[in-house]
Amino acid sequence: MKIYGIDFTSVPSLKKAITLAQCRVAGESLCIESINHLKSFDDFEGFLNQPGPWVAGLDFPFGQPRQLIENLGWPGTWEDYVRYVSSLTKTEFTDTLASYCRGRAKGDKLHLRLTDKLARSRSPMMLYRVPVGKMFFEGAPRLLNSGVCIPSCRLKDDPRISVEAYPALVARRWIGQHSYKADAARQQTSARRSAREEIISGLRSGDAKMHFGFDVQFNDEQANVFIQDGSGDRLDALLCAVQAGWAYSQRERNFGIPADCDPLEGWIVDPLLAAGEIAIHE
Questions:
Q1: In this predicted structure, what is the pLDDT of residue 274?
Q2: Strands 2-7, 18-26: parallel, antiparallel or unpaired by DSSP?
């Protein structure tokens, strides 16, 4: 089975591309074959439309919080509200979220999905710093248009499977809350490099099989590429592939997605979230 991990960006370019880790499952191992770069949304759409079977973990929110959808009066299914969002320009979408937030009390502006609360990830409404709201705007409609199967939002008979990934959940198993990446060169410190080394060491140890049920295999040259990349894009793509590989191993159990997952919001695939082992932090 082909397994992909994708580190997404809402503005792909030659300098900051969408990063794709191509892997395959072989026995009880996830083997890394290559790291590629999708430099435009056309490239990304081409990837989504390549024939299956494959499973891809993508690092952007597939959905928005139910509270936002209902308060704005958006359509009540994932397909319909994502289709509505795709009819907006990016400016119209960001203005809608900004206007919504301005009219609400402090602490009640950026809503979280249940999966965000469990994963301690940012609100998919966020438009600044890490603009995951813009990533949703660019990513979710393209998933819809591609017709891929999305077990958390749109389960259908298609051999192309897309699941939502969050690489920080994998990284935290070895480095806790420590930072391991930065886009700005001046912030790519030795401490962050050491954190990447810890993550790579963890992936190459028996811990990976304990956490995910398979070994993660890559050679020393590949390991060095992940460590040297201070932006963390290549490593994040790999970590997304690890989550996608685990989801594939759970394919008889809805790819590790809880049965009561809200299909309006979507779900991040991870064994800790699936097992309910992470408490919600209010």
A1: 87
A2: antiparallel
**pLDDT digits over 242-263, tens only?**
999 999 999 999 999 999 999 9
3-state secondary structure the chain: CEEEEEECCCCCCCCCCEEEEEEEEECCEEEEEEEEEECCHHHHHHHHCCCCCEEEEECCCCCCCHHHHHHHCCCCCHHHHHHHHHCCCHHHHHHHHHHHHHCCCCCCCCCCCHHHHHHCCCCCCCCCCCCHHHHHHHHHHHHHHHCCEECCCECCCCCEEEEECCHHHHHHHHHCCCCCCCCCHHHCCHHHHHHHHHHHHHHCCCHHHHHHCCEEECCHHHHHHHHHCCCCHHHHHHHHHHHHHHHHHCHHHHHHCCCCCCCCCCCECCHHHHCCCCCCCC
Residue 200 φ then ψ, to 5°: -60, -40
Give the CA angle between residues 118, 256, 131 to the nearest 5°: 45
Q: Are strands 2-7 and 29-38 parallel, antiparallel or unpaired?
A: unpaired
Residue 73 to residue 100: CA distance in whole angstroms: 12
pTM of the entire predicted model: 0.95
Say if residues 178 and 72 touch (Cβ distance below 8 Å).
no
Contact yes or no for 141/85 (Cβ under 8 A): yes
State the Cα–Cα distance between residues 113 and 122, nearest whole angstrom.
Answer: 10
Condensed to tens digits (0 to 9), the pLDDT of residues 181-210 reads 998 999 999 999 999 999 999 999 999 999
Query: Count of CB atoms within 10 A of residue 178's CB?
Result: 14
- CB burial of residue 246 (10 Å; 0-12, 13-18, 19+): buried
